[in-house]
């Protein structure tokens, strides 16, 4: 077999390694390339100027003949050599990073708590107070304010009392509620509708910024457990109960525009239409990204009906048959013949993962409440707090003045996709 054929075989295998494995660059020089069999790794000496070397047996045996092993070809795929006009330049594939406006970020973070209380008060003061007979009850808007402050602080009901006192001194509430009053409010189903409206209102200041959206779901653990007897293994099994939050977020600011809380076993695709419809009421959707769980003809037709482009990848067994869905056929051929361009839009979906991580890192990945209603409300409060934090950040980066109404008087300026 000729040397060119031997190198071609190894080049193909090297490309597989480069696409499926992680190649690390050593501080001392060279690259660590994992073995294709999964057993160990080899060090490749490669700087683009001298003959590369590898410590694998294949290179030791055939390297003197001019045959490069697959590990060298794997590095070659990562560091491409381009020869122009007799000069050799090295083009290295690097991770794309995005600049951070540290001045705006620092200002937003250092003043976040004060601004958070002010914005939260602006929203909750408009919560309608239901009329009840008998002894006057606490102001509902103020109790909602205190509930959000409790979740924002990540403290227990009793330890949050000092935050209520601070809010009282600043005029945000007219009376410091008992800590049990806040807990009792979380157990009311009526609170869920109020929080969903507040989440929608909190996203409105950024309606002119967001045109690209992503959809996904995530889980929040609880303090409750399921227990059952497993006859197959002859023992009791315990499993923690958790709730699932289905959400749509903007890919520029990570603001959540629609959310639905369900049990752990509710399929993502069932909640898709409601989330997209709620977002479309207040935002202009140009494109929407989601994973394969949302891939169905009905979902793609729904996105097409609002004149948006769905970037949802197709499963391996999917076909291009329209079956009444022209959007399905169009996007299937786009996915098959323009895969690279399709994936550039699809990978905006990673922003919904970032959004979920922001919420869990800041406000916790579990809930303190014990019953279902309170747990749902606590998750909604986490999302409301997250939205307000996003608005605070954009107040400094985009220089906006949020007005929490359905038609914002001071909308954020348009932002280019790039």
Q: How are the secondary structure elements laid out?
A:
Layout: H1 3-20, E1 24-25, E2 31-34, E3 41-45, E4 53-54, H2 57-62, H3 70-78, E5 79-84, E6 87-92, H4 102-110, H5 112-124, H6 140-153, H7 161-169, H8 179-186, H9 190-203, E7 212-230, E8 235-250, E9 256-263, H10 272-282, E10 287-289, H11 297-305, E11 309-311, H12 326-337, H13 339-346, H14 350-363, H15 372-397
Helix pairs in contact: 1-3, 4-15, 5-6, 5-15, 6-8, 6-15, 9-15, 12-13
What portion of residues belong to β-strands?
Answer: 15-25%
Biggest sheet: strands, sense, closure?
Answer: 5 strands, mixed
Outline the low-pLDDT stretches: 81-86, 406-415
Query: Largest beta sheet: what is the strand line-up?
Result: 9-8-7-10-11
User: Over all CA atoms, what is the radius of gyration?
Assistant: 27 Å
CATH A-level architecture of the domain at 210-366: 2-Layer Sandwich
Distance between the termini: 50 Å
CATH topology of the domain at 210-366: Nucleotidyltransferase, domain 5
Q: How many β strands by DSSP?
A: 11
* SSE order, one letter for each helix or strand: HEEEEHHEEHHHHHHEEEHEHEHHHH
Shape: elongated
Give the helix proportion (percent range): 40-55%
Helix/strand/pairing class, anyone? Answer: alpha+beta
With helices defined by DSSP (H or I, 4 residues minimum), what is the helix count? 15
The averaged pLDDT comes out at 87
Task: Please give the CATH class of the domain at 210-366.
Answer: Alpha Beta
Features:
alpha+beta, four-stranded antiparallel sheet, 43% helix, 418 residues, Nucleotidyltransferase, domain 5
């Amino acid at each position: 077999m000729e040397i060119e054929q031997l190198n071609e075989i190894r080049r193909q295998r090297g490309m597989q390694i480069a696409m499926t494995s992680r190649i690390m660059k050593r501080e001392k020089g060279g690259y660590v390339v994992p073995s294709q069999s999964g057993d160990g790794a080899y060090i490749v000496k490669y700087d683009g100027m001298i003959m590369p070397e590898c410590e694998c047996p294949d290179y030791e045996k055939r390297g003197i003949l001019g045959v490069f092993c697959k590990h060298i070809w794997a590095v070659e795929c990562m560091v491409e050599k381009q020869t122009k006009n007799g000069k050799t330049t090295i083009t290295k594939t690097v991770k794309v990073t995005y600049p951070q406006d540290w001045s705006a970020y620092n200002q937003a973070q250092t003043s976040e708590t004060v601004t958070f209380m002010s914005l939260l008060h602006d929203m909750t003061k408009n919560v309608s107070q239901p009329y009840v007979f008998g002894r006057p009850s606490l102001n509902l808007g103020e109790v909602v304010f205190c509930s959000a402050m409790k979740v924002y602080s990540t403290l227990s009901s009793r330890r949050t009392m000092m935050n209520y006192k601070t809010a009282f001194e600043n005029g945000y509430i007219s009376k410091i509620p008992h800590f049990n009053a806040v807990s009792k409010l979380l157990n009311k189903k009526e609170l869920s509708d109020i929080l969903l409206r507040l989440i929608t209102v909190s996203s409105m200041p950024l309606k002119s910024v967001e045109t690209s959206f992503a959809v996904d779901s995530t889980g929040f653990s609880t303090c409750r457990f399921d227990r059952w007897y497993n006859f197959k293994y002859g023992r009791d099994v315990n499993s923690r109960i958790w709730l699932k939050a289905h959400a749509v977020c903007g890919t520029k600011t990570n603001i959540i525009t629609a959310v639905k809380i369900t049990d752990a076993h509710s399929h993502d695709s069932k909640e898709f239409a409601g989330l997209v419809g709620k977002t479309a009421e207040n935002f202009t959707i140009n494109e929407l990204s989601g994973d394969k769980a949302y891939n169905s003809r009905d979902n793609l037709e729904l996105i097409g009906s609002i004149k948006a482009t769905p970037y949802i990848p197709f499963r391996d067994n999917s076909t291009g048959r329209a079956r009444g869905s022209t959007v399905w056929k169009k996007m299937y051929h786009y996915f098959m013949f323009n895969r690279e361009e399709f994936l550039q839009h699809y990978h905006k979906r990673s922003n919904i993962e970032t959004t979920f991580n922001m919420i869990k890192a800041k406000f916790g990945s579990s809930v303190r409440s014990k019953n279902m209603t309170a747990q749902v409300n606590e998750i909604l409060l986490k999302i409301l707090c997250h939205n307000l934090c996003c608005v605070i950040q954009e107040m400094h980066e985009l220089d906006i003045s949020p007005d929490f109404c359905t038609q914002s008087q001071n909308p954020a300026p348009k932002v280019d996709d790039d």
